[in-house]
Amino acid sequence: MDYLRTLGSAAVSSLVQKSGLNLPFSLGPKVTSFDNRTIWSLYDGTKRDDGTSVSVFEFDANTPAKKNLLPLAKNGLRKLRTTRHPDVLKFMEVVETDTTIHIMTERVRPLGPAITEWQSKSVQEREAWLVWGLHRISVALAFLNDSASSTHGNVRVDSVFISASGEWKLGGFDVLSNPKDDAAVLYTMGGMLPDASTYSSPEVKKGGYSALKELPTAAADAYGLGLLIHFAFNPNHTLPATAQPPHPPPTAASRGNIPTSIFPAYKKLLNPNPKARLTPAHFLELGMSQTAGEGSGFFATNRLVKVCAGLDNFNLASEAEKASLLKSLKESANSFPTEFASYKVLPALISALEFGGASAAAILPLVLQFGKGVSPEDYPSVILTHLVKLYASPDRGTRMALLDHLPEYADKLDKKTVCDKIWPNLQTGFNDTVAIIREATVKSIILLSDKFNERIMNNDLLRHLAKMQADPEPSIRTNTCILIGRLGPLLGYNTKRKVLVPAFARALKDPFVHARVAGLMAFMATMDCFDIEDIASKVIPSMAFTLIDKEKLVRDQAFKAMELFVKKLEEHAATMPETAPAEDEMPQVQINGSTPNALVNSAAGAAGALAGWAITSLGKKLATGDLQTSMTSAIGPSIDRPTSAPAANAALAGNTLTLSSTSDFSSGPPPLTPTLSSSSGPTRSLTSPSKGKGMQLGATKVLSHASAIPDWAEEAAAEMETSSTNPWGNGDLMDVNADEDDWSAFETAPAASTAADDFGFGNVHADAVVADSWDTIPKPPVAPQPTRPTPAHRPSVPSPLASPRPGSGTRSITPSEKKAEAAYPASSTAGMTKEEKAAEMARRKEERRQRIAALKEQKKHAGEK
To answer: Where is the composition biased (Pro residues) (predicted)?
Structure first.
């Protein structure tokens, strides 16, 4: 029937057209070991719709030797189609014509070759496997004889098959008949089977197959079961002597490899008297009984039989029985046949795991242990599909078991499965209320990191890790830092610059000593992730304070880390030029006559070098004509000045120091930049100041009448008269953190541009070590730094003055001033037009005059008292 192997052949096309059916399978290679053993030919096949492996039994009546056997083939098809039992060959599909029959069943292989293969196993393993198989056949025969009231009539090695799970399946239903059935073929055509006389019982050899109609239905099958036991344990022996007339009972010498526990029952199965013969049902009962004396319990003590019985009734068993079965599976897992473990035990365990049959912590390790024998091609469908579903389970025990054993199956997961099915459920573990789940989730990330997509790696994951660095558990914070260090090389370039330094710097401030050590080690492990500029401006400054950590373990690690980074800087510095390209306008500054390239090697030398001024060479840049002129002020109407500042003195001229303002205080107080101003040329600053007015005091030009007494002077005089102590107050010049001071006089600067997303780790600028304001972890004591509110968020605070007076100090506000402030609340001039600003300044001037009058009135009443 080779033409069936090619579906495009003319014969198959004709077959399909005549029958009106499509073949549901594709024929594969023929199983040659089964040739001429029965009326059927066996092929390996593949199911068309889903690619499942199947077996195809073929009968062709066109062959002369099989022309008269068509009734037997049709009987076998009819009985197999209607008989459903776990230990009977599973029928799936059939393609039938007038002269051909193709039966598709589950994938099986003949028992004979399988017995030969098991000869290489140990005696104990082979005996356990054979007894377990005979148990399954006994169950099937008991079902046919008792429940179906039928006689199989063809029990032999060639009628038994091995399924993919290693279980024995009963087939060969060619002469299966019910004595009450008028169409029974056993009693009329039983002798037409191949080798029928060899396997027939004594009563059949004496009176033919028609004699079975008057005997119990189990008589012939019991004799066939006895011969099956003989050939199973002694495959190389001939028929026992009892199979030939005068049918003497078996002797101990003829036992061969048959176990002694089975031999007494074996002899009863071969009893020549059919009415005294042991039936398959009684044989099964004897084997499962442990109280029937000698020759009993051979099935009940078999470990494979016990495992199958336990798995079949697992969901109905008590907790103690489940625990006992799982323990037995764990202890003997390596001794189970491969196919039995992979296709019998494993599916049962997965079913129990998926539907809550027992604790996941107990079953999942067994699932993975038995899964080692599954082929790589089948592993995703047999194991991974079920494990992935379990990630959606809210049970903490299941999640913990999955994460604990993740190393055993992580490498077999594909990227799509991880991103689409595992990650959405896995990330819930970061927010779990149980610390051990959070920690296990953090540890599992490194095993799946190579399968995350860009969004998860550079966005979603980092947001969770930022929260984990603030976890109450020290071990979780430490492991999070270690994880970020290991993930560093996998992050994108921009993400590395935003995240790594703030994350590690936060760990360095952790109160847990090992978290600080982990932060230093993470810096060292990710050294190649930092640009040389970042090392100098961010990394080293972030680590510097750990050099004097309270713990020696941290200090030692800090010095090692610092040495590593400084060495890298030295190597880079060695490749740099000695000096930058000189600019014509750049002055050559000398300190106390030293050369620009001179280096100071001691503290004393540095103190001496700084004893003089570095401005002595600036005068050399002035033109000769300028040196002969008198010094005049460069301040004029063209320069914006605050109204609260004192008027310029005409006697002042030459060089002046002006405040270089910026619009951002977030990185520290504004620097005072020395600026050289000359009446003969444009003003030139050593650093380029900002041209915005965000830091300018006031908003109007300087008063044209320099001799007029400014309002702030009148108020200051009144305060001096009423104050018996320090007229400028007892505090510092001005507390920049005090909300009651004169910050309202500042114009509101333009809002700073929104910073790029830092994923919760903060931003690190070149002039600040770490922007760590969001850090919730307690930090080591750090010297307090004065802070000022940024212009974008500076509150508008009522103030009696438009700007701080030169040299004035902070003073307490009098009750009259409080009333005046309540009556005339100050407002910011930001966003006002010139006319509105003028009106606002006039109102403030009137306020000041009223306050001065109130102070004078207060003094007057005090004098009268």
So the answer is: 778-789
